[in-house]
Write a structure and sequence with these properties.
This protein is an all-alpha fold. Helices cover about 70% and strands about 0% of the residues. The longest helix has 29 residues.
Length: about 400
């Protein structure tokens, strides 16, 4: 093969890699089947690549070892003792595909700074599109595709369900990191101002979606990043605080013009917290804990919650939502994996968080974005979608792969 042919082959491979990186987050965000396909394909290719190159150092990462132990426990101990082992076994065995996907991104795909940059720009574009489409729907009644609001106070954006805030939350801190580290923002003050404005616009979007958990979780993550911002800015800290205060006042004034949304997002949240065990979420948690008590150590089995709940709950009017999953990551793992499963799962998460915390001394802002992304999903006191399956898991572990990579101090 000639030198020119080698160059052309390399250029073609590079172009295909970039196209794949651009299409991967789009597919994961908007298609359940393509999300599963992307996760499995990336994981398998990573394993093949590791076998051929004999590069297995990533397997020794503490968080991944914990993921292997958790998967082994679910497969060898929890699943055989499940109420429906035929359901629990395959889901337990293939849980590892999610951490493997994150590892593939962190230690292989994003090892190329150029490919990671393409990914980050794609994520930023997706976030801008979802926010713009959702706001269009809020102010005009329909989004760009003609989808109407399902209710006056809940948006769908480009999705088929009322989840634009939920999905955007899992990637928005990647987009905000792209903004902050943009080569077009030269000074620390310019970066800080741009970030504060972006926080304000994003918080407004989260508020207008009517998704209470997404709004509160975004505020939590924003607080983490702002603390990191103050830590890293030796000059201009007072200006940052002053600008943040002005933006907060402006947002509060704008929200005052939306009394229905204030009641939905803030008033109803306060009411739920004040009467939690009488609320729908309280009853749901109580139901999950009731099922957990039947098998406190090993749980009822992964993905067993729904069939068992439907056997216990006879009211067809609440089965669809009430019996889907416990709506909290830790309660879900407790009910389906037992106390042992919760301990192992929490250990895995703690090791991932420790990976981010170790990066603070050398790269505080990057660590801040990574920790914010982590807490947006794994903060214990929040209602969540199911972590054990579905395309939300693909989005979550895609974000974790990015966060693990950028806090490695490489690339």
């Amino acid at each position: 093969m000639t030198h020119t042919a080698h160059i052309q082959e390399h250029q073609t491979a590079s172009l295909l890699a970039k196209a794949a990186i651009v299409l991967m987050p789009i597919a994961i965000m908007f298609s359940r089947s393509l999300a599963e396909l992307a996760v499995v394909l990336v994981g398998v290719l990573f394993l093949v690549r590791s076998y051929r190159t004999k590069e297995w150092a990533w397997v020794k990462e503490p968080w991944f070892i914990a993921a292997l132990v958790f998967t082994a426990y679910l497969t060898l101990i929890s699943a055989p003792m499940a109420v429906h082992p035929e359901i629990a076994l395959p889901h337990s065995l293939f849980f590892i595909r999610w951490p493997l996907f994150a590892a593939a991104l962190a230690y292989w795909v994003f090892a190329s700074p150029e490919l990671r940059r393409w990914f980050e720009l794609t994520i930023a574009a997706i976030v801008v599109f979802i926010i713009a489409d959702s706001l269009l729907q809020y102010f005009t009644g329909t989004d760009i595709f003609g989808k109407p609001k399902i209710q006056d106070w809940r948006l769908t954006g480009p999705f088929d369900r009322q989840v634009p805030g939920t999905y955007t939350l899992r990637i928005i801190f990647i987009a905000l990191a792209v903004l902050y580290f943009s080569r077009y923002l030269k000074s620390g003050l310019a970066k800080s101002i741009a970030l504060l404005i972006a926080f304000s616009a994003s918080a407004t979007f989260m508020f207008l979606t009517g998704e209470r958990v997404a709004f509160m979780s975004f505020l939590l993550g924003s607080g983490i990043v702002i603390v990191a911002l103050i830590m890293t800015q030796n000059r201009g800290r007072l200006w940052i605080l002053f600008g943040g205060a002005l933006l907060a006042i402006a947002i509060a004034g704008a929200l005052a013009t939306q009394p229905k949304m204030v009641e939905r997002t803030i008033g109803s949240t306060a009411g739920t917290i004040g009467n939690f065990w009488e609320s729908a979420y309280g009853r749901l948690f109580d139901n999950a804990l009731t099922l957990w008590r039947d098998a406190p150590w090993t749980g009822i089995g992964i993905k067993n919650y729904r069939p068992i709940c439907k056997e216990v709950v006879q009211n067809p009017n609440i089965e669809g939502w009430f019996c889907s999953h416990p709506h909290n990551t830790y309660v879900e793992i407790l009910a389906e994996g037992g106390l042992i499963g919760l301990l192992l799962f929490s250990t895995m998460l703690a090791l991932i968080l420790w990976h981010f915390l170790k990066a603070i001394p050398r790269q505080a802002m990057t660590a801040g974005f990574a920790i914010a992304l982590f807490l947006a999903t794994f903060w214990p006191i929040m209602s969540t979608m199911s972590i054990t399956s579905g395309w939300i898991a693909a989005i979550i572990w895609m974000g974790m792969g990015w966060a693990i990579n950028v806090t490695r101090g490489e690339g």
